[in-house]
Amino acid sequence: MKRRLLNKLAVLGAGALLVGAGHAQTKPISLVIGYSAGGSADYIARIVGGELSKQLGRTVVIENVVGASGMLAVQKVLNGPADGSLIYMGSSDLMLVPMINTKVKIDWERDLLPVGRASTVPMILAVPASSPYGTMADLFKALRKGGKQTFSYATPGVGTMQHIYGELIRKQAGVELLHVPYRGGPQITADLVGGQIDSAILVLPTAMPFIKDGKIKALSVLDAAGVPQLPNVRPIGDEEGFKGMVFPLWHGLFMKAGTPAATVQASEKALLGALAQPEVRAKLAEGGITAAPLNGQDLRAFLKPQSTLYREIVTSAKIAQE
């Protein structure tokens, strides 16, 4: 009996985590994300997915389904069975892409059931180290005086959370900003360090190595209470015109609508259990990511006002994606 069990474990490999003696092999769970391997979303998925395996006693496999601004990953889950074997880990793209692309008919409230929120990733507005601006107040004061009419900010693309954040800054501060969309992160940081662009909106994990090396500096952080990595950088919610504003880049888990409530609740309990583990929280923090657990009901309540704010910004800025 023991020999057979050892043989099974050898075949399943390190990714298959079984709990309890005599535990029967069950259908693996696919944790589907719409981002490529190596990014912050993939990092979160692998840390959280590994602990989910332990909590559920089931294999959790990470599937990177890239394309259509993350919507191919959503569609994979929607095309699959409503049995909990497919879990979508998504972010603001889930709501933003259907807003800016009328061809996308996905409706998160209709099509998916929130399992829970896993994390938030702070975003910052960064400038080259040689920039004359040291704070957002400095920047706003200069732009309102009309000193530089085409102050540019780079993002990974049209309709990304970074773009929405930039448009929020432009709208709330009443200043002119020029959006410069890129195809990805590495070229943004290279051009920012080189001074080819005036500023960029970056996720903290991407920005920190360049901040530590003194190549760029952060003017603001998009987190309700700031972040310990940047103790001297004010959160945007403390700036005039942004009081109390919370606008995080978040990651949450969802299942296909119609999945049995007991199945959703089991994964919700496992997610919250995973995020309660000190080693999981520490690993996320190492990557500049904040464990930010919410249960499914609270995630839904969190997303509704966020969705309203996204739509207001998309509409006022006339953001559209072909």
Textual characterization of the structure:
- There is one protein chain.
- This protein is an alpha/beta fold and 322 residues long.
- The protein is built from twelve helices and eleven strands.
- Helix 2 (40-56) crosses helix 10, helix 4 (93-100) runs parallel beside helix 12 and helix 7 crosses helix 12.
- The longest helix has 22 residues, at 296-317.
- It is globular and about 60 Å long.
- It starts with a helix and ends in a 5-residue tail after the last helix.
- The model is unreliable at 1-25 (pLDDT under 50).
For the biggest β-sheet, the strand order reads 2-1-3-10-4-11
Average pLDDT works out at 89
Low-pLDDT segments: 1-25
Instruction: Using the alpha-carbon principal axes, give the shape.
Output: globular
CATH architecture of the largest domain: 3-Layer(aba) Sandwich
Q: What structural class do you assign from the helix and strand content? A: alpha/beta
* Order of SSEs: HEHEHEHHEEHEHEHEHEEHHEH
Instruction: Give the fraction of residues assigned to helices.
Output: 40-55%
Summarize the main sheet.
6 strands, mixed
Distance between the ends = 59 Å
CATH-assigned fold name of the largest domain: D-Maltodextrin-Binding Protein, domain 2
The CATH superfamily of the largest domain turns out to be: Bordetella uptake gene, domain 1
Radius of gyration: 21 Å
Give the count of helical stretches. Answer: 12
β-strand percent reads 15-25%
